[in-house]
Amino acid sequence: MIKDPVVGDLIDQRYVLTREIARGGMGRVFEAEQRETGRAVALKIVHRRSRFVRISEEQLLLEAQAIAAARHPGIVELLDVGVCAVNGPYLALEMLVGRTLDGIIASRRSLPIEDVVHIGRQMCDALAFCHERNIVHRDLKPSNVFVALEGGREVVKLFDFGIAALGGAGDASAEQDAFGTPEYMAPEQLFADGAIDHRVDVYAAGVTLFECLTGEVPYPGTAAQVVAQLADRTRPVPRVRATLKDFNVDLDEVLAMAIALAPERRFSSASAFVRALGLASGLEAGTTCLLGEATPSMLEALDRSSRPSLPGAPPSDGRVQRLFERVPYVTVTEINHGDGAFVGHSEDISLGGMLVRATASLPAQAKVKVTFQLPGVGRSASVQANVRWSRAARGGEHAIGLQFLDLANDCRKAILDFVRNPSGAEAGGTS
């Protein structure tokens, strides 16, 4: 009997599902515990009832092959592949502590130049490694870029290779090339009018960095609107300096070259893009500062204060300190309010509240009930909360800042333990 998986299920007699991290049209991602070792993994499972189940299963196998062929510190690690008689095929991936770049942009709108250059370096280094092995990602975008905390440093990792080309180039008329996100697809891929190569990844990387800087993609809108804007490949590409007037001129030129509409006008390789980023910015290789960690003084405040924190509007640079430090925590959430309920997912959590992303919005000061999986304890909780702020993000999503009200002692303890040691019960995951 085929059934959709839920928390608590045993998959393939090997993995116990402990938390739902994300869900989408093709499948779900869970945190799971491997029975033999107790190791936490991210388990990716296909929706068995989807009408696209065959395509989803093919993509899952393709992703396994691509990740196995591209073992690199900047690419999520594949740990296991299997087929469950009840739930079908699955991938077991390393569990990551952190957040997707998409979630970071949604909450902050734009990122500092230094962080963007460091993201670009790491992202393109991983792409160059793939391209040397004739692997083209073809679906690079902020939601497939993860900022992970490893050994006290932030590391950028790529994932979701479900529509990758393993031969280095592909015929854009092939069935799987129809998949992707239009805003990040190079014209030759979007219009399916010829062979594509690694330069589609260079284009997508340029669009991603453009969005990190400005909070918007070069060609925004619906799929039809994006197609209409890209139909004329001779048009000048948008510039970062149109939004950021004092932006580095040389760096603006580099990004414009990366998103050139004609592939022959782009950088010839991801490695060339990396070199140009370094020369134009004058920045040495380094790491980002996007996640933040709890400081000793903040942990003391957690112990001595029972007051909830007041999660205010997200800062523009992400470097302000709060009364209660938040840590990345991604899990599916259900928000009940006066007019009904909707499902979203959290981005971070603290004793004071959580940041949730969803396709619905709520008015400030609205009273809601939020249901989510408590970190580290394997059970769900329903908590009364107040909407501190709600803001539209790109792509029809909304970022919602929730303030917890009257946290029960067991919930408070679970969250406090997690803030103290987020890596003890992994904070994020891959999707």
Spell out the blueprint of helices and strands.
Blueprint lengths: L9 E2 L3 E9 L3 E8 L5 E7 L6 H17 L8 E7 L3 E7 L3 E3 H8 L4 H20 L12 E6 L2 E6 L11 E2 L15 H4 L4 E2 L2 H16 L8 H8 L18 H10 L11 H12 L14 H9 L22 E2 L3 E6 L2 E10 L3 E6 L8 E7 L6 E13 L5 E7 L4 H12 L11
Antiparallel strand pairs: 1-2, 2-3, 3-4, 4-6, 5-6, 7-8, 8-9, 10-11, 12-14, 13-14, 13-16, 14-15, 15-18, 16-17, 17-18
Helix pairs in contact: 3-5, 3-8, 5-7, 7-8
Could you explain the architecture of this structure?
- The protein has 431 residues and is an alpha+beta fold.
- It folds into 3 domains: 10-94, Phosphorylase Kinase, domain 1; 98-281, Transferase(Phosphotransferase), domain 1 (Orthogonal Bundle); 296-424, Thrombin, subunit H (Beta Barrel), CATH 2.40.10.220.
- 27% of the residues lie in helices and 26% in strands.
- The protein contains 10 helices and 18 strands.
- The chain has helices at 53-69, 101-108, 113-132, 187-190, 199-214, 223-230, 249-258, 270-281, 296-304, 409-420, and strands at 10-11, 15-23, 27-34, 40-46, 78-84, 88-94, 98-100, 145-150, 153-158, 170-171, 195-196, 327-328, 332-337, 340-349, 353-358, 367-373, 380-392, 398-404.
- The strands form 4 sheets. The protein has a 6-stranded antiparallel beta sheet, with helices on one face. It has a 6-stranded antiparallel barrel with strand order 13-14-15-18-17-16.
- Strand 13 (332-337) and strand 14 form a beta hairpin.
- Helix 3 packs antiparallel against helix 5 (199-214), helix 3 packs antiparallel against helix 8 (270-281) and helix 7 runs antiparallel to helix 8.
- The protein starts with 9 loop residues before the first strand and ends in an 11-residue tail after the last helix.
- The model is unreliable at 171-178 and 293-321 (pLDDT under 50).
